[in-house]
Amino acid sequence: MGPRPHTREPRRIVATPAELADRLRQRLDTSTSRLMIGICGAPGAGKSTLAEQLAALLGAGTAVVVPFDGFHLATSVLDGTPKLARRGAIDTFDLGSYRSLIHRLRSHDEDVVYAPSYRRGLEEPIASSIAVPRAVPLVLTEGNYLLADHPDLRAAREDLDEVWFLDTPHDIRIRQLVARHVAFGKSEPDAQAWASGTDQHNAEQIEATRQSADLIVAVEA
Predict the structure, then answer these.
(1) Structural domain containing residue 57
(2) How much is the pLDDT for 7?
C-alpha cells in the first residue's frame, strides 16, 4: 500500500547522493519485495541526474530508472493543438499509461517489463527502450507530477513505497533549466523565455504538491 498525503510539512533532509544511496541500501536490506521510490520536483530541479547517480552508486543490476518523461505525448498528437505551446503541462502526458506501467512494476510478476524513455533534442518519447528485469530489486521513477492530485497519479502513488520531493533553490534550478534548453537546441533568449513562462507555470503547480511527499530532499554536492 502506497503512502497517503500528509497533513503537515514532511521532514526535510540535506544529504549527498552517496548518503541517499546508503539510505536506499538500508531499505533494500530489510525489504522482502521490490522497492519503488519516486523522485518528484519542478523542472530543472535535477531529478533525472539524482536518479541516475543513485542507480550508479547502488551498482549494476540493483536499480533501474523509469522516467515520467517517457509518457510525453508525441509531437504528432500535439501538432495543431494549443498543447504544443505548453508541452510539459500535466495534460500533455499519457497519465493512464504511466499508472499502468507502475502497477505492472509493482506486481513484479513478469520476467521483464519495458518502459519508455524521452529523447531530448528529438523531443519525443521512445517506446519500450528501458528494460526492467524481474530480478531488479529497486525501481526509481522520477518526474514532475508524481504528487499531483489526479486519479491516475494517485493510483500510481499507491504502488510507490515513498515519494521524495527534490528541493532545489530557485536560482540554481532556473540556471540548470536554461542550460538544458540551450544544450538541446534553444537559443539563450528562447530558453530564458520558456523557463520563465511555460516551465515556471508548471513549476508553481508542482511546488504546491510538496507537502504530500514522504520526504523533502536537498542534495549536497
Answers:
(1) 12-219
(2) 54
One-letter amino acid for residue 80 of the chain: G
Q: Does residue 2 belong to any structural domain of this protein?
A: no
- What's the rounded mean pLDDT across residues 74-103? 94
Q: Can you list the alpha helix ranges (DSSP code H) found in 31-87? A: 47-58, 75-78
**Helix spans in the chain (H):** 17-30, 47-58, 75-78, 95-107, 151-158, 170-183, 188-196, 198-207
Query: Is 44 within a domain?
Result: yes
- The whole-angstrom separation of Cα 113 and Cα 197 is 36
State the amino acid at position 101 in one-letter form: L
The answer to whether position 6 is within a domain reads no
Range with lowest mean pLDDT among 25-39, 78-92, 183-197: 183-197
Cell numbers describing residue 117: 524513455
The total number of structural domains that make up the chain: 1
3-state secondary structure of 205: helix
% residues pLDDT > 90 (the chain) = 81
Q: Residues near 179 by Cβ (< 8 Å), separated by ≥ 6?
A: none
**Residue 170: CATH number of its domain:** 3.40.50.300
For 147, residues 6+ apart whose C-beta sits below 8 A from its C-beta are: 40, 153, 157, 163, 165, 206, 209, 210, 212, 213
Look up residue 174 and give its three cell numbers. Answer: 532556473
Query: Does 5 have pLDDT greater than 60?
Result: no
Work out the pLDDT band at 116, boundaries 50, 70, 90: very high
